[in-house]
From TrEMBL:
It is an enzyme of class 3 (hydrolase). It comes from Alaudala cheleensis. Keywords: Cleavage on pair of basic residues, Disulfide bond, Glycoprotein, Hydrolase, Protease, Secreted, Serine protease, Signal, Zymogen. GO terms for molecular function: serine-type endopeptidase activity. Residues 1-30 form the signal peptide. The lineage of its organism: Eukaryota, Metazoa, Chordata, Craniata, Vertebrata. PROSITE patterns: P_HOMO_B, SUBTILASE, SUBTILASE_ASP, SUBTILASE_HIS, SUBTILASE_SER. This is Neuroendocrine convertase 2. Pfam families: P_proprotein, Peptidase_S8, S8_pro-domain. Belongs to the peptidase S8 family. Furin subfamily. It comes from the Eukaryota. It catalyses: Release of protein hormones and neuropeptides from their precursors, generally by hydrolysis of -Lys-Arg-|- bonds. It is found in: Secreted. GO terms for cellular component: extracellular space; membrane; neuron projection.
């Protein structure tokens, strides 16, 4: 994507600055320090870095692709996790004239997202578990609802199987010797960032704890018609293993390195992990990872942008995925899950940043209601579940769409997701399905519906890249406002969406409410935001396990996708209150409205083939104008003949 005008670039820098203020501003509590150091040199390249490392007793060096002169130094003489900084190593490095900067990496927790183990279409596969893969073709197996699936059969029948597309599984490794994965394994695009070698094989444990990545890989790229296990959603795609989730503590360098690994080879990155889903954690990407993600969407895939797919989270009704800075990032496609009868899974988190859903298990005791896929040491399983299973399914669908059109950008993929996902027979017992200001139907848990592979590849084939994206600070309230113990605090911001400026936004994609707020109990706080076109987004729901009374939210970017396609001009309302049993107090200290979208109609070049589709609905004004013009031409023709 070419660089925007100076004002646009300034807005992007402002956005990154706001995000960094949050993620870096809070003091560390119970910090852990690893044996990894970020070292930036004044120059000299890899050879110079290796000399510096050796002279200071460091056992290994790796170039960091997201920093021009940045390297990972790791010291085998230090513990992998300790409570105190190793100041002597840091100071020695900083005194070296060749070193510009040295930072010992803090460790933090990232968890795999899983829960607990739990016939009209003529597609012939000889894989033994294929008939049990109800999420691919649902004929009512395991007491499911026939037809409630990803509609991959239509995409396959059109000839799309993921050929030419590579998906990176960022996880605990891949059993790349597995006979159902070996033929589709991309060794050159794989790496082990936990052990710093090119062999991302899972570490052995008696309880098979490190089977997570292998199971995710099989959902995407398991080979077809080989009489082994099941079939991947994109069974002719290539899969890369990025092992980064198997060490005591995560570091910013490991995350950033994984997210930026070979972005000109890997098309889609699938992540089924995130901060702890305990209902009381508020966490997200750190400085280097934020920069790596921004670089990925701007520079990956030859400038078309890396596609990041994220599991929404497994905290259930006790959590809110807008408190997860990965799932709620506008640079990721956040995916939730439904079970095989269309109901929500017990672990599903709801939030306004979720874009769409796929399938998993979590309610039924039927042993065949889980996700069938590959397992460690050449085995197969029917017991994969959680939103861990949902994200790779989405990555597979996106691989089918990319095969149909390799020119799709990261934003094109999000637009296609909004336009082709379907309500189908999904049922949320808590949140109703609603329509936003331009008529697009959404749900607070399922997003815009379940992915439809057939519809997506059909639309992708003829897709024209959406117009340039702009960023506008729609306004800000900086004066402290008290949140009453009962009732609501309601504030309004009226914005022209930067109209008359180079970064004017007319058609919305993502909206962020960057908020600083403190309260006597963070878990009882609720936040809603209503757009000028009347769409209400639940930015934060009650989290009953969150007892925090000190940190609150510090410049936290709550995000909504529910206003997609709307005109942002007008008055936005922010509503804050408490939902617990005991009275609480709080203070809103800042609300900044960030608008992201296009100036011109995003679908003006798209061809409407189904006048009942979301695309037709989104082009309603344009189609009405075309109809009026056609009627006028017909009348003129009739009158001229008379």
């Amino acid at each position: 994507m070419p660089p925007g005008p100076p004002l646009l670039r300034g807005s992007l820098l402002h956005l990154l600055f706001l995000l960094l203020l949050h993620f870096l501003g809070a003091p560390a509590r119970g910090a852990v320090y690893t044996n990894h150091f970020l070292v930036e040199l004044h120059g000299g390249g890899q050879a110079e870095a290796e000399r510096v490392a050796a002279e200071h007793g460091f056992g290994g060096v790796r170039k960091l692709p997201f920093l021009e002169s940045g390297y990972l130094f790791y010291h085998n003489g230090l513990a992998k996790a300790r409570r105190r900084r190793s100041l002597q190593h840091k100071l020695r490095l900083e005194k070296d004239s060749r070193v510009r900067k040295a930072v010992q990496q803090e460790g933090f927790i990232r968890r795999k997202r899983g829960y607990r183990d739990i016939n009209d279409i003529d597609i012939n596969m000889n894989d033994p578990l294929f008939t049990k893969q109800w999420y691919l073709i649902n004929t009512g197996q395991a007491d499911g609802t026939p037809g409630l699936d990803l509609n991959v059969a239509e995409a396959w029948e059109l000839g799309y199987t993921g050929k030419g597309v590579t998906i990176g599984i960022m996880d605990d490794g891949i059993d790349y010797l597995h006979p159902d994965l070996a033929s589709n394994y991309n060794a050159k695009a794989s790496y082990d960032f936990s052990s710093n070698d090119p062999f991302p094989y899972p570490r052995y444990t008696d309880d098979w704890f490190n089977s997570h990545g292998t199971r995710c890989a099989g959902e995407v790229s398991a080979a077809a018609n080989n009489n082994i296990c099941g079939v991947g959603v994109a069974y002719n795609s290539k899969v890369a293993g990025i092992r980064m989730l198997d060490q005591p503590f995560m570091t910013d360098i490991i995350e950033a390195s994984s997210i930026s690994h070979m972005p000109q080879v890997i098309d889609i990155y699938s992540a089924s992990w995130g901060p702890t889903d305990n209902g009381k954690t508020v966490d997200g990407p750190r400085e280097l990872t934020l920069q790596a993600m921004a670089d990925g969407v701007n520079k990956g895939r030859g400038g078309k942008g890396s596609i990041y797919v994220w599991a929404s989270g497994d905290g259930g009704s006790y959590d809110d995925c807008n408190c997860d800075g990965y799932a709620s990032s506008m640079w990721t496609i956040s995916i939730n899950s439904a079970i095989n009868d269309g109901r929500t899974a017990l672990y599903d988190e709801s939030c306004s940043s979720t874009l769409a859903s796929t399938f998993s298990n979590g309610r039924k005791r039927n042993p065949e209601a889980g996700v069938a896929t590959t397992d460690l040491y050449g085995n197969c399983t029917l017991r994969h579940s959680g939103t861990s299973a949902a994200a790779p399914e989405a990555a597979g669908v996106f691989a089918l769409a990319l095969e149909a059109n390799l020119q799709l950008t990261w934003r094109d993929m999000q637009h296609l997701t909004v336009l082709t996902s379907k309500r189908n027979q999904l049922h949320d017992e808590v949140h109703r399905w609603r329509r936003n200001g331009v008529g697009l139907e959404f749900n607070h848990l399922f997003g815009y519906g379940v992915l439809d592979a057939g519809a997506m590849v059909r639309m992708a084939k003829d897709w024209k890249t959406v117009p340039e994206r702009f960023h506008c600070v729609g306004g800000s309230i900086q004066e402290p406002e008290k949140i009453p113990p009962s009732g609501k605090l309601v504030l309004t911001l009226t914005t022209d969406a930067c109209e008359g400026k180079e970064n004017f936004v007319r058609y919305l994609e993502h909206v962020q409410a960057v908020i600083t707020v403190n309260s006597t109990r963070r878990g009882d706080l609720t936040i809603n935001m209503t757009s000028p076109m009347g769409t209400k987004s639940i930015l934060l729901s009650r989290r009953p396990r969150d007892d925090d009374s000190k940190v609150g939210f510090d410049k936290w970017p709550f995000m909504t996708t529910h206003t997609w396609g709307e005109d942002p001009r007008g008055s936005w309302a922010l509503e804050l209150g408490f939902a617990g049993r005991e009275p609480q107090r709080g203070v809103l200290r800042e609300w900044t409205l960030m608008l992201h979208g296009t100036q011109s109609a995003p679908y003006i070049e798209q061809v409407v083939r189904d006048y009942q589709s979301k695309l037709a609905m989104s082009k309603k004004e344009e189609l009405e104008e075309e109809l009026d013009e056609a009627v006028e031409r017909s009348l003129k023709s009739i009158l001229s003949k008379n």
